[in-house]
Design a protein that fits this description.
- One of its GO terms (molecular function) is monooxygenase activity.
- This is FAD-binding domain-containing protein.
- Pathway: Secondary metabolite biosynthesis.
- InterPro entries: FAD-bd, FAD/NAD-bd_sf.
- By secondary structure, the chain is α/β, with parallel strands linked by helices.
- It has two domains: 240 residues, FAD/NAD(P)-binding domain, CATH 3.50.50.60; 163 residues, 2-Layer Sandwich (D-Amino Acid Oxidase, Chain A, domain 2), CATH 3.30.9.
- The protein has nine helices and 17 strands.
- Strands 5, 11, 12, 13, 14, 15 and 17 form a seven-stranded mixed β-sheet that branches. The protein has a five-stranded parallel β-sheet with strand order 7-2-1-10-16. A three-stranded antiparallel β-sheet has the order 3-6-4.
């Protein structure tokens, strides 16, 4: 069947994984449609940085090809300096932390003799920590795809037809018939809920966080590197922040760096447990929590841009790995719709598995010239291997950083489609 005669591949969501998959389909001349609930790509700010592993970079390069990947690579930040290290928040001094032991930019963990703990090697190409803001990543991946996207179309389910599938939207209307539907609409994916019959679960760990930003000049006291700043002095539990400081931008006050704060359950308490609050309320809580931190760290909070502060609830996928479900020949899921470990990925584990999903499924569809029977089962079998490994790493970090233990039989899971914030 010619490409022009084929029904399109339908994609729910216009996030990172969905857009990268769409690029793979476009390069293979496979028809597609993307349905996104937001009104435009700028509707929601997505400024926090994602760390890219070798596996993630390889997946992106395989999809984009050499020229487009070079453009993507050029906008990524490459951080050297101290690599990944920990700091005692109260004293401002280096901290002996198994999570970051042996992760200097010029060292490999197996060469340091440091005790092993739950951790992830953050450096990738060139021995640098490579990162990019999620919003910038989306801008790179959307290039050339604009006319494939239907904005303000929230997918809430799907229906199978005699020879395809249709997406169902929040207003009750339905999409054109497609050869296949791919749920890439993130944590609250209704497609994931339906296709897995509820087996794909997300747990609210009880841990909480705040994201903040400040001018790069506020980070001079740290120097270049990726830093985990830990405070174990709080009576309610541990607090830490992670931040990435790139030397090339440190003297420009017009550029902002971000930091992400995480805390054990009960430490961060917004008014009325309302995590939709952003701005000054979140900023003031962050400042209160860090008021006794070392002077070299204070500018991160005293100079923070209050309007950019935001709370976040910390979630985790099923700790035992990606579950199995009865494969639907025409429907599958990618990215955060499969695993979403907002808490423990150090800005990277979930993103790197997401782009691997896109590259894998995109390659299988390109090789077949579009949808074919058995393609979802083949993709899901291969995906479960690396995705389950990623979940295990993330959950190990959860127990180290937050002391969290999830009993899959008794811990309540979050209902897909019901937003936390």
């Amino acid at each position: 069947m010619s490409a022009s005669a084929r029904k399109p591949i339908l994609i729910a969501g216009a996030g990172v994984s969905s857009l990268l998959l769409a690029q793979a389909l476009r390069r293979a001349s496979i028809p597609l449609r993307i349905f996104e609930r937001d009104a435009s790509i700028t509707f929601r700010a997505q400024g926090y940085r994602l760390r890219l592993s070798n596996e993630g970079l390889d997946a992106i390069e395989a999809v984009l090809g050499p020229d487009a990947f070079q453009r993507f690579w050029d906008v990524c930040g490459k951080t050297g300096g101290m690599g990944f290290s920990s700091i005692n928040a109260i004293t401002g001094e280096p901290l002996n932390d198994p999570l970051t032991a042996g992760q200097g930019a010029d060292k490999k963990p197996e060469e340091t003799g440091e005790p092993r703990g739950p951790r992830e090697t953050l450096t990738s190409r060139g021995g640098k920590v490579v990162g990019i803001a999620r919003g910038e990543m989306r801008k790179q991946f959307i290039d050339g795809l604009e006319h494939y996207i239907d904005w303000s179309h929230q997918v809430v389910g799907y229906e199978s037809t005699a020879s395809g599938v249709r997406a169902i939207f929040a207003d009750g209307s339905k999409s054109v018939e497609g050869d296949m539907l791919i749920g890439g609409e993130g944590l609250y994916s209704r497609v994931a809920e339906q296709v897995s019959e509820g087996k794909l679960k997300v747990y609210d760990t009880g841990a909480r966080g705040i994201h903040g930003q400040a001018p790069t000049t506020a980070f001079k006291g740290l120097g270049e590197g990726v830093f985990r700043i830990v405070d174990d002095s709080k009576p309610d539990g541990r607090v830490f922040i992670i931040t990435n400081v790139r030397s090339g931008d440190m003297d420009d006050p017009n550029i902002e760096f971000g930091w992400t704060m995480g805390a054990q359950p009960g430490v961060i308490k917004p008014p009325n447990e309302d995590y939709t609050i952003t701005g000054t309320v979140a900023a003031d809580i962050a400042k209160s929590i860090t008021k006794d931190w070392a002077p070299r760290l204070q500018p991160l909070f005293t100079e923070m841009i209050s309007s950019e502060a935001a709370f976040w609830k910390i979630t985790c996928s099923t700790p035992s790995g990606v579950p199995e479900w009865k494969s639907d020949p025409r429907v599958t899921v990618i990215g955060d719709a499969v695993i979403t470990d907002s808490s423990f990925q150090l800005g990277g584990i979930g993103a790197n598995t997401a782009v691997q999903d896109s590259a894998l499924l995109g390659r299988l569809l390109a090789e077949a010239g579009g949808w074919r029977d058995g393609i979802t089962a083949e993709y899901e079998k291969q995906m479960r291997v690396y995705a389950s490994k990623a979940v295990a790493t993330s959950y190990g970090l959860a127990t180290h950083q937050f002391g969290i233990k999830i009993d899959e039989n008794s811990t309540p899971s979050i209902k897909r489609g019901a937003r936390l914030v």
